[in-house]
């Protein structure tokens, strides 16, 4: 595959433990690369893969598809344009409808690297600044087997940004009502928020209640358009020889945040990014 001159780019959607090696091999073959998150569970191994991309001079895009969701893009627009002023508080809610299989949990690298890494990237994307400090409170409240595997299933993570803004990420491996994906940014001049997606807009009103159907229940339903949009952006970057919109640096920074969150949970204290990144 990598020796085929007719192939310009590859998409890496294999298990995480294969990502870095395939990136290195594809870069050496001169292929443009799209890789699902994370690049690797190890920061050192991530840096080796990014160095290979840099040496080869090829493009790399990381699969943080939520950046391409129209709702989150509108939130980012409200922040970037100054429409809501300077960001003060960010609240990101990300709750799965059910935990993944235990076989997956055991090899996933843990909730922070597997699940929350999307929210870490979203926090950086929405605010447009780097995080300086992370504090994590986490527990096993959904499934004791997850705890036996050395992971957590419920967490509140606070972030402090370089400009002073603060964020709270609210994670759970089980929200019985569906796939819960919401965000709000409070700024000096106003606020912007985005809610869940539903299969329909129907509201049922009776003498007993006013209700609607449950939110979409699977990430492929909720984010199908964003997956298409991110792949379109990658193809356009390759075709037009322009920078990819989500870089290896973005993948690295999200991993650093995930590793800091894990360290904070284990040690019960705030952790600065410099403790993980070494600079």
* CATH level 1 class label: Alpha Beta
Number of strands: 12
Strand arrangement across the biggest beta sheet: 9-8-4-7-6-5-12
Query: What's the helix count?
Result: 11
- What CATH calls the topology is Dihydrodipicolinate Reductase, domain 2
- Beta-strand portion reads 15-25%
Low-confidence stretches: none
Average pLDDT over all residues = 97
CATH homology superfamily? Dihydrodipicolinate Reductase, domain 2
How many domains make up the 3D coordinates? 1
The helix-and-strand class reads alpha/beta
Rg calculated over all Cα atoms = 19 Å
What is the rounded distance between the termini?
38 Å
**Inertia-based shape:** globular
Helix content percent band: 25-40%
Largest sheet: 7 strands, mixed
CATH architecture descriptor name: 2-Layer Sandwich
Order of helices and strands: EHEHEHEHHHEHEEEEEEHHHEH
Task: From the structure above, extract its key features.
single chain; 279 residues; alpha/beta; Dihydrodipicolinate Reductase, domain 2; 7-stranded mixed beta sheet; 3-stranded parallel beta sheet; 11 helices; 23% strand
What does the model show?
- 40% of the residues lie in helices and 23% in strands.
- The protein has 279 residues and is of the alpha/beta class.
- It has a single domain, classed as Dihydrodipicolinate Reductase, domain 2 (2-Layer Sandwich).
- The strands form three sheets. It has a seven-stranded mixed β-sheet. The protein has a three-stranded parallel β-sheet with strand order 1-2-3, with helices on both faces. The protein has a two-stranded antiparallel sheet with strand order 10-11.
- Helix 6 (116-127) packs across helix 10 (248-267).
- It is globular.
């Amino acid at each position: 595959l990598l020796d085929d001159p007719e192939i310009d780019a590859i998409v890496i959607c294999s298990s995480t433990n294969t990502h870095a090696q395939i990136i290195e091999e594809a870069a050496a073959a001169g292929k443009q690369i799209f890789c699902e998150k994370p690049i690797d569970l190890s920061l050192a191994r991530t840096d080796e893969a990014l160095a290979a991309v840099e040496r080869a001079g090829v493009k790399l895009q990381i699969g943080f598809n939520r950046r391409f969701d129209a709702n989150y893009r509108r939130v980012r627009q409200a922040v970037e344009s100054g429409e809501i002023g300077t960001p003060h508080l960010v609240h990101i809610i990300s709750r799965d409808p059910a935990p993944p299989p235990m076989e997956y949990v055991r090899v996933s690298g843990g909730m922070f690297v597997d699940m929350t890494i999307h929210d870490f990237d979203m926090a950086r994307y929405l605010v447009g600044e780097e995080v300086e400090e992370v504090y994590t409170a986490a527990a096993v409240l959904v499934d004791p087997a997850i705890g036996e595997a050395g992971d957590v299933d419920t967490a509140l993570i606070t972030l402090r940004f370089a400009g002073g803004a603060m964020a709270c990420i609210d994670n759970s491996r089980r929200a019985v009502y569906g796939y819960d994906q919401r965000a709000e940014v409070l700024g000096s001049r106003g606020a912007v928020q985005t809610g869940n997606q539903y299969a329909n807009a129907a509201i049922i009103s009776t003498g007993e209640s006013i209700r609607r159907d449950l939110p979409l229940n699977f990430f492929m339903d909720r984010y199908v358009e964003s997956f298409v949009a991110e792949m379109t952006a990658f193809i356009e970057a390759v075709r037009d020889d322009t920078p990819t919109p989500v870089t290896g640096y973005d993948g690295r920074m999200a991993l650093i945040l995930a590793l800091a969150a894990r360290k904070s949970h284990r040690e019960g204290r705030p952790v600065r990014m410099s403790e993980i990144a070494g600079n």
